[in-house]
Amino acid sequence: MFRDIEKDIQQYYADRANEYELTYERPERQTDLKTIRILLKNLLNEHHVLEIACGTGYWTKIISSVAKSITATDINNEVLKIAKNKLIKLKKVTFIQDDSYSLKKIRGNFTAGFAFSWWSHILISKLNDFINVFHSRLQPGALVIFIDNFHIAGSSIPICRIDNDGNTYQIRKLQDGREYEILKNFPTRQTFEEILGKRVKNLKIEFLTYFWIITYNVLL
Ligand SMILES: C[S@@+](CC[C@H](N)C(=O)[O-])C[C@H]1O[C@@H](n2cnc3c(N)ncnc32)[C@H](O)[C@@H]1O
After folding, report:
1. What DSSP letter does each residue of 26-48 carry, written as one string?
2. Which atom of ligand 1 is nearest to the CA of 20?
3. Domain-by-domain residue ranges, the chain?
4. Which CATH number is correct for 5-218, 3.40.50.1980, 3.40.50.150, 3.30.1050.10, 1.10.8.60?
5. Considering only CA atoms, which residue is closest to atom 27 of ligand 1?
6. Which of 10, 74, 101, 167 is most deeply packed, by most CB within 10 A?
7. Nearest CA to ligand 1 atom 13
8. pLDDT tens string for the chain (220 positions)?
9. Atom 6 in ligand 1: which residue has the minimum CA distance?
10. Are residues 22 and 82 in contact, defined by beta-carbon separation less than 8 angstroms?
11. What residues line ligand 1, using a CB cutoff of 6 Å?
């Protein structure tokens, strides 16, 4: 039976909205998360940020302490509702329901683009088109930050399937027992260089213990 991999991801995160932030309580990841919080506050200081797939606004809240403005988007209203409640009083943060693959509702002079735990959910065949759309919503020279996690045996959910294009999948379980097969890719340095190489400058790839971080500027 034909399955829509992107719709499955969307539904899974809608259903997971109320338990999503438990992921940030995992003890073994605390050192990395602290490093990332500090890094984001340094890098996004005074920026006009477009954040995509913002989820429940965990990172939106952190960067709101330093950014000049944030437009944060996600496809799911279930997560946006939680994010909005967190930042209800902050006028510099705007939430917009939108699809990261089209970003049709997004207008603005963004000096930075950011996404946490989004790259891994993009089909390899869609990476190029996604990057083109994302860059088209940012100012020339804008800073871009993507952060996501590695597959670490013992900490990560095992990979249950690899498709013909090399996309990898995991079985995710919610607290009530519902199960979903979810696309979750683990890119390498080579993937970043191939996808981004010619269209960005200052590409930096940093590996923490559980997370990878890439930063670069969109070519002028
Ligand atoms: C792994 S979560 C990351 C949430 C948040 N960035 C964080 O790190 O806490 C992935 C997010 O992508 C959102 N999402 C799924 N498909 C999407 C799409 N096509 N466009 C925009 N957001 C999407 C989900 O609703 C979910 O909030």
Report:
1. -GGGHHHHHHHHHHHHHHTTT-E
2. 9
3. 5-218
4. 3.40.50.150
5. 55
6. 74
7. 53
8. 567 999 999 999 999 999 999 999 999 999 999 999 999 999 999 999 999 999 999 999 999 999 999 999 999 999 999 999 999 889 999 999 999 999 999 998 999 999 999 999 999 999 999 999 999 999 999 999 999 999 998 889 999 999 999 999 999 999 999 999 999 999 999 999 999 988 999 999 999 999 999 999 999 7
9. 54
10. no
11. 6, 9-10, 13, 53-55, 58-59, 74-76, 79, 99-101, 116-118
